[in-house]
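Regression test case RT-17, inverse folding.

Input:
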């Protein structure tokens, strides 16, 4: 994303992009010159830094956010016959993690203005699937805005919640204890999952981080990201093969109680992650300031264009800056607006088309109409937002949006 697509000027503003500085590059080079490119100490150091920053006992890295979601459904032991409640307005991976383990996806509607799943939406989806079959809920913090995880936890006692916090690194939300918590601290959830893809708040190229307060889930996720291998002698079950005649564990020995995957993050990625994580407060402050400017400028274009409203109980880190544009009332197609903005050097995106309408899920999990998801999808437009943008860039985007839509 750092290089504009062919034919576009260097002043092109993509909807999101990474910020890589000299010290990030130096940290990667140092690992490249060292002994461990993978399974080395830099991964451990990145995990320790994540756990500290997110105020949680366990952080497990992996090769992508998608791999992290898969590890979460594996660690929770989900499988055929189980149902997982997932909001329909999200990235494909939030739902696919249930499909990977053979569980059913119960698609939930969302608030038409925030795009967030609320308790009544989850209740309706659970009722359709059969409440007893619901064995997990994926709470998606869309745009960096937080779902009310505490409310979901009290509405579904005993049902583990996976926070898909890909968009919410650096945010804070109110927990069931009424205190404010860093997103990822898991006060009310089983697992929280982050992506470090370049458009996210920090970048490692590809990568994911899962956090949990539960040592059992931590162990399972670590094991399943590394082929399902067990190396702890205390857990070996094949005593004859595991130990020598003196009772010491054979140095080469490992066991595999169930097959896992290679979902490891490399030390090269982790080196970048450590440097990027140190910059999280700066990145989030910049995003918040830019989003405030957007909100101010967009709200002058009401009622047909406005900024996403801020949900209660949340201090968002703003992964995306979404405008709600009433394309129908304006009598203009979204594609025409996006193409016109692109011609002015402004990249936009749509986050997201409802996942229950994907051909695979239409065929396998037919879902009734979800009006909130439809209304949100019809109006959402993600505008450029990344920490190195300036206020002048924001003004340029909003002025162009007003011009191409004929508003203001
Ligand atoms: C909400 C959400 N969930 C999951 C993912 C998957 O993350 P990754 O691209 O790191 O696999 C993404 C990435 O775009 C996402 O936005």
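Golden output:
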């Amino acid at each position: 994303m750092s290089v504009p697509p062919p034919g576009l000027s260097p002043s092109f503003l993509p909807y999101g992009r990474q910020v890589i500085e000299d010290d990030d590059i130096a940290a990667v080079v140092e690992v490249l010159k060292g002994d461990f490119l993978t399974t080395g100490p830099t991964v451990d150091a990145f995990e320790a830094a994540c756990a500290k920053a997110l105020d949680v006992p366990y952080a497990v890295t992996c090769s992508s956010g998608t791999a992290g979601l898969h590890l979460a459904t594996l660690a929770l032991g989900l499988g055929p016959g189980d149902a997982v409640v997932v909001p329909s307005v999200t990235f494909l991976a939030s739902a696919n993690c249930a499909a990977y383990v053979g569980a059913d996806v119960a698609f939930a509607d969302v608030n038409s203005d925030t795009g967030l799943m609320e308790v009544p939406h989850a209740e309706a989806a659970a009722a359709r699937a059969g409440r007893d079959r619901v064995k997990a809920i994926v709470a998606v913090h869309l745009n960096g805005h937080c779902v009310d995880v505490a409310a979901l936890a009290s509405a579904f006692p005993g049902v583990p919640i996976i926070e898909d916090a890909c968009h919410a690194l650096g945010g804070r939300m109110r927990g069931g204890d009424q205190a404010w918590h860093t997103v990822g601290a898991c006060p009310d959830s089983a697992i929280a999952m982050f992506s470090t893809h370049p458009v996210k708040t920090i970048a490692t190229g590809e990568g994911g981080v899962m956090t949990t307060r539960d040592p059992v889930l931590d162990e399972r996720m670590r094991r399943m990201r590394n082929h399902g291998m067990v190396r702890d002698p205390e857990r070996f079950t094949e005593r004859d093969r595991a130990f020598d005649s003196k009772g010491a564990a054979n140095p080469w020995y490992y066991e595999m109680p169930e097959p896992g995957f290679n979902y490891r993050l490399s030390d090269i990625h982790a080196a970048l992650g450590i440097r990027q994580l140190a910059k999280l407060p700066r990145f989030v402050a910049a995003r918040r300031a830019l989003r405030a400017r957007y909100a101010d400028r967009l709200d002058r274009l009401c009622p047909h264009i406005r900024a996403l409203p801020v949900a209660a109980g949340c201090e968002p880190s703003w992964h995306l800056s979404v405008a709600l544009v009433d394309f129908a009332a304006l009598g203009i197609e979204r594609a025409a607006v996006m193409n016109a903005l692109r011609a002015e050097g402004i990249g936009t995106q749509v986050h997201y088309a409802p996942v229950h309408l994907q051909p695979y899920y239409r065929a396998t999990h037919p879902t009734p109409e979800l009006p909130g998801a439809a209304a949100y999808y019809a109006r959402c437009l993600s505008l450029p937002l990344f920490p190195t943008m300036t206020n002048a860039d924001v003004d340029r985007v909003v002025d162009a949006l007003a011009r191409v839509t004929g508003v203001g």
